[in-house]
TrEMBL record, chains A, B:
Mg(2+) 3 binds at D48, D93, D229. It comes from Aliidiomarina iranensis. This is Thiamine-monophosphate kinase. The gene is thiL. Substrate binds at H72, D280, Y335. Catalyzes the ATP-dependent phosphorylation of thiamine-monophosphate (TMP) to form thiamine-pyrophosphate (TPP), the active form of vitamin B1.
């Protein structure tokens, strides 16, 4: 069997979907029109490169994330969740720029072809992609240690994208959703903490199937002065806003939002570690002038996303944590890959 | 040492370049303006996503290629050549669409941090990128088996991009440059063939430092009816044009262009194997109506790229090879990754 043919048949079987054939039975669907569920895709999978046609007056947000077997996931992670999460972590970056997700490029290295794995992976991948109405436009499949790289592109009106710089003293600091569920689930899987069995499923759902805050990111375009997504935890991620903006922050630990499952599993200072240093929440953290807070909270409620004020930007250039207005020392660090390297 | 800091310091040291500081000494270069050697980059490396501003009326060509240690390169490949080739193979795909290269996203998995390797890799990477006036806008560095994924984006006037489909019976088939050097160099390295020592450097240069035909691709926008880049060899790659266009082709083996080093190392049917099935040439193959051939050859000469007519498109839906107008049987296959999978 020709090996190159194998690569193409894998793409055709698992990653190249025919759109519109059902709506327009009997018409010939040419190779070039198969990927046009989005009309801004002129050439989809199957040529040397894809061609997309951006709307006039828009910027394109571009982000890339890699997930490596044994580093970002292991055999405890459901395979469809790997597909979901690869999409979610990239769309979370687009959300933090205020962009609308549009086009994805997927590159995979596989040690061998496992059709069951591919079926489950592509199911999770395309379910996430369909939910956010974005489309796979190309990629690469090669032999190698299991590694998945996704480049996601989104559309944002020029000059209205969000950045990490822009936070001003007096701005309120908000986070979306709840914090700490994913990190607590991971710690429980690793036996580092004990969690009531009835809450494990809810916590693991947040670890395995994170929700990128795509709608909220677009709502923030006219509101927030800075934004970032919480992939490594509030402790590390908010420092990017502070450095880029040349400001400091005061975080009120007792205002950090938590889920019911989290609250019934852990509390107080033990919980804060997971909430601010655990990572994998994929919530948005953003700053907003006090005058816009009421409007923002109303808009977010209408969009079905909870947002919580957890602190305030100041001119100190320091990041300080408080509990009921008393300063707290934090003795733990943000997550990073090359520990000890 | 904080691990996450490591990742950011690696990016800052090897992948994030400050532009314009030398031209404008004394001015403060903010984080957000560091990546603006191209003025169409509004936000470069260092935020959740990059923001690029495409020109009005243009399409964006997007392509992704992955290179895996032990699969696409080994210790015989100079490290700076790995950086060069990662850029070259992606720009070759953009060239085949007629696009002007613009923005690159790089994702790397490293088993550990080898500063010598990173120095050499980034030297080759940025030399290629600078030559083609494109810019790194983002990426990801993570721990894992050595794997490099590049997504390249190029700009092409809407409706003027090249595709694989469009070849018509009677069109002439052209290739750029010469064929077979890279494959012959690889076979010689592997001891499969003997090459005169005085020619090895010239052949290896083509294997290690391929030249994407970026200028030629843009010249072809108004000329070619179809185009593809030769990454897997003419035998396999032209079939993509034939299938996409619903046509057949006759290739004259004795017209295939070769370098002097190639001609003095191997000849005749033994050489054809490397020229049509060897791959890694990164030349363009394209089809063009006979009426435009004279004009095309003149334009290409002016641009300093040799183009050679090697055959003709016909209505047969078959790919046939000829030597001096006598039909030849070909008993070898195009390159592919999952051999035996």
């Amino acid at each position: 069997m020709n090996i190159r043919t194998d690569e193409f048949s894998l793409i055709a079987k698992y990653f190249q979907r025919s759109h519109g054939a059902g709506d327009d039975a009997g018409s010939a669907v040419s190779a070039s029109s198969q990927n046009r569920s989005r009309r801004d895709i002129a050439v989809g999978i199957g040529d040397d490169a894809a061609i997309v046609i951006p709307p006039t007056g828009c910027g394109i947000a571009v982000t890339t994330d890699t997930m490596v077997s044994g580093v970002h996931f292991d055999e405890k992670v459901p395979v469809d969740a790997i597909g979901h999460k690869l999409v979610a972590v990239n769309l979370s970056d687009l959300a933090a720029m205020g962009a609308e997700p549009a086009w994805l490029s997927l590159s995979c290295a596989f040690p061998s072809i496992d059709e069951n794995w591919l079926t489950a992976f592509s199911r999770g991948f395309f379910a996430a992609l369909d939910y956010y109405h974005c489309e796979l436009i190309g990629g690469d499949i090669t032999k190698g240690p299991l590694t998945l790289t996704l480049t996601a592109q989104g559309i944002v009106p020029a000059e209205r994208y969000l950045k990490r710089e822009g936070a001003q003293p007096g701005d309120r600091i908000y986070v979306s959703g709840t914090l700490g569920d994913a990190a607590l689930a991971l710690a429980a899987q690793q036996g580092k903490v004990s969690v009531p069995p009835e809450h494990m499923a809810a916590l693991e759902k947040r670890l395995f199937y994170p929700t990128p805050r795509v709608a909220l990111g677009q709502l923030l375009r006219n509101q927030a002065t800075s934004a970032i997504d919480l992939s490594d935890g509030l402790l590390g991620d908010i420092q990017h806003i502070l450095v880029a903006s040349g400001v400091g922050a005061r975080i009120q630990l007792d205002t950090l939002p938590f889920s019911q499952a989290f609250a019934e599993s852990i509390s107080g200072p033990d919980g804060w570690r997971y909430q601010i240093a655990g990572g994998d929440d994929y919530e948005l953290c953003f700053t907003i002038p006090e005058s816009r807070c009421g409007n923002l909270e109303t808009l977010a409620l209408q969009a079905g996303v909870k947002v919580t004020c957890v602190g305030i930007i100041d001119g100190s250039r320091e990041l300080r944590f408080f509990e009921k207005n008393q300063a707290c020392d934090i003795d733990f660090h943000a997550y990073s890959h090359f520990q000890g390297a």
